């Protein structure tokens, strides 16, 4: 269906988003919109350019560039002088860009079962588990998240957890075209607060937990929680439900605030009739757990590690149960879920250690991961990690202290140094190691591949080499360039050099 500038403007007006149209020629409004974009460099002939403000420059500064590239109109929150194309003046450019993109793509969210997953930790794994259950139940499901975007046919590496609105709507449209019945999407606090999910309404949601993260952006935990809560306040539809972890204090708060719509799940604070779980057995190869669903009990063997993945499984089971999936389908979906890239990925080395790759890059996440691995390790833990530059400096000594309390050997390396000196970042981590009560062996090896190889060379059978911070990322980011790199590829390279097989 062709979208005219007039019909799109009418849609924004109906959504109480459009204030006025600035145009010298009414005929301009009959022109066909070819795209909706927020980057003037990507504006093409017929595009509608949305003037979103960045961290350093205002969006209206790029309106002329977009016009020169062929844009037929702009969305802005103020009139722009000396601009020869129509201007749609709106109350909120962020919201308007999402609504405009949704309308341009035919309101794809209205044609899909929409499931949003939010919280600090566990979003990616929970999203993968939900998708796996839906697949087991015969429902084709797309995925938008931290690791990948999948439109039901094609997979691409994710740029960010919740992408900008035009890309979200394009992905949803492709899912519809590819025959998807549903979409499961991670909703980050940035994505919610910056209105990237404008144009999306959800049928189901998950709240995993909340721990300190992104406080440089939100300021404090109250603001961080308020951003997450916005998903349930502004973006749900119909007889919606949110599955919330009541073992987490913020998850319990969600249950109280949205009580008519909340489905509780827990491992510890459980009561009769609610969805709950218990771990039967746990090893380096996975966990066996029981899941109590209303009216039934299922036992599942999961290719996942640790209690927090038991929570992720409960979240997925709760969501699927609320949608009417049977216990047998839920069990099959959980047990057949493919490995989640960079989320406690386990690799067994022939006659050598177990290697675990994880994305953990905050003190809380590192503590959860290392605490999960420690009781499952028959030998010693070798921990390889660093920290990203230009952000969260206060976390560096905290990471060092967490590492010192749980690892036997530490190799401090680089992560994404960006504009900082990776040696300086490493020394700040070492300050935390030195100030801890633990006394682990540590060394600094800045080259990350060399650091991984050193740990693998020195670890023995029964040991675990835990590599954290980058997970599925495939590059290292410096100030003025990026370098191809993957922790998994570093492991494979070591195996090839040493004549070892991954089992």
Automatic annotation (TrEMBL):
PANTHER family for the chain: MUR LIGASE FAMILY MEMBER, UDP-N-ACETYLMURAMOYL-L-ALANYL-D-GLUTAMATE--2,6-DIAMINOPIMELATE LIGASE MURE HOMOLOG, CHLOROPLASTIC
Main EC class the enzyme belongs to: ligase
Organism this protein belongs to: Acetomicrobium flavidum
Record-linked PROSITE patterns: FOLYLPOLYGLU_SYNT_1 (PS01011)
Binding-site positions, ATP: 119-125
Subcellular location(s) per record: Cytoplasm
Known catalytic reactions: UDP-N-acetyl-alpha-D-muramoyl-L-alanyl-D-glutamate + meso-2,6-diaminopimelate + ATP = UDP-N-acetyl-alpha-D-muramoyl-L-alanyl-gamma-D-glutamyl-meso-2,6-diaminopimelate + ADP + phosphate + H(+)
Cofactor: Mg(2+)
Pfam families, per the entry: Mur_ligase_C, Mur_ligase_M
Pathway: Cell wall biogenesis; peptidoglycan biosynthesis
EC code(s) of this entry: 6.3.2.13
Record protein name field: UDP-N-acetylmuramoyl-L-alanyl-D-glutamate--2,6-diaminopimelate ligase
Keywords of the record: ATP-binding, Cell cycle, Cell division, Cell shape, Cell wall biogenesis/degradation, Cytoplasm, Ligase, Magnesium, Nucleotide-binding, Peptidoglycan synthesis
Keyword Nucleus (UniProt): no
Signal peptide: none
Protein modification: Carboxylation is probably crucial for Mg(2+) binding and, consequently, for the gamma-phosphate positioning of ATP.
Family that this chain belongs to: Belongs to the MurCDEF family. MurE subfamily.
Binding site for UDP-N-acetyl-alpha-D-muramoyl-L-alanyl-D-glutamate: 40, 161-162, 188, 194, 196
